[in-house]
Write a structure and sequence with these properties.
82% of the residues lie in helices and 0% in strands. It is mainly alpha-helical and 250 residues long. It has one domain.
């Protein structure tokens, strides 16, 4: 990797780290970049997780310092997501990626509509009536998607944490970081065992994404729910369109 590409990867890591912590969709930038550097899609999908792991280590640490994250609650949701991630990662080469991209694009487009039409759903903490088994099923499914491709999983987690768990966006973002950290550890172990991770590229992205993740946590806590919702609207629309065009173009 040349010095210019090293700097570019670090800067891109900063942007993706910020977006992943505040909203989601950062992998829609980093995955094409890794492929541009010469990695095949499978290796890019695996290598991208190095930066995601480290940015969420930083994010979880900062959210804990800001007292908006419960580790007990993180584990209660991170465990089912990690179980799902095992299946998603192992089946990554067998599933129909085009169908999955279209489905997820439709889901996050629906979330964009809710973000605009029902702001109180995302900005207010409330009690929910979802039973524990239903939450487990939901987070196992989301973890499976995260293990498979990662891109866009943050949007699904925020939707689930707001709708099924009842968190406002600041606390949903904190829990999202902890849950992603849990299942990324599992996915990385599997990808590493398959020899798919390029550590040079992964660490270059990770260096920037750690800084971006820290900035994202501070932005989330200081700016609050309304600003997060604005960024979410923009990112889910862009990500949904990109997924749809990518699915039909592949």
């Amino acid at each position: 990797m040349s010095f210019f590409m090293l700097v570019l990867a670090t800067l891109l890591g900063g942007v993706t780290g910020f977006l992943n912590v505040v909203a989601g969709g950062g992998s829609l930038l980093s995955l094409p970049f890794l492929i541009f550097l010469g990695l095949d899609a499978s290796s890019a999908n695996a290598t991208n997780r190095v930066g995601i792991l480290l940015q969420n280590v930083v994010a979880v640490w900062q959210f804990r310092r800001d007292k908006v994250l419960s580790l007990r609650e993180s584990l209660s949701l991170g465990i089912p997501a990690s179980i799902g991630a095992v299946g998603g990662t192992l089946l990554a080469v067998q599933l129909d990626e085009r169908f999955l991209k279209i489905t997820i694009a439709l889901l996050i487009s629906f979330m964009a509509i809710l973000l605009v039409a029902k702001p109180r759903m995302w900005e207010t903490y409330r009690e929910t009536s979802w039973p524990t088994w239903a939450k487990w099923c939901l987070f196992i499914a989301i973890g499976a998607y995260g293990g498979f491709i990662q891109a866009g999983v943050g949007f699904l987690l925020i939707w689930a944490l707001a709708g099924a768990v009842g968190k406002d966006l600041v606390r949903a973002n904190a829990l999202k970081a902890a849950i992603v950290l849990c299942f990324t550890v599992v996915s990385l172990m599997i990808f590493f065992s398959k020899g798919l991770i390029n550590m040079q590229y992964g660490l270059a992205l990770a260096f920037g994404s750690m800084a971006g993740g820290w900035i994202g946590t501070r932005f989330s806590v200081v700016k609050g729910n309304k600003w997060i919702r604005y960024i979410l609207v923009v990112m889910v629309v862009i990500s949904a369109l990109r997924m749809i065009f990518g699915a039909f173009g592949s």
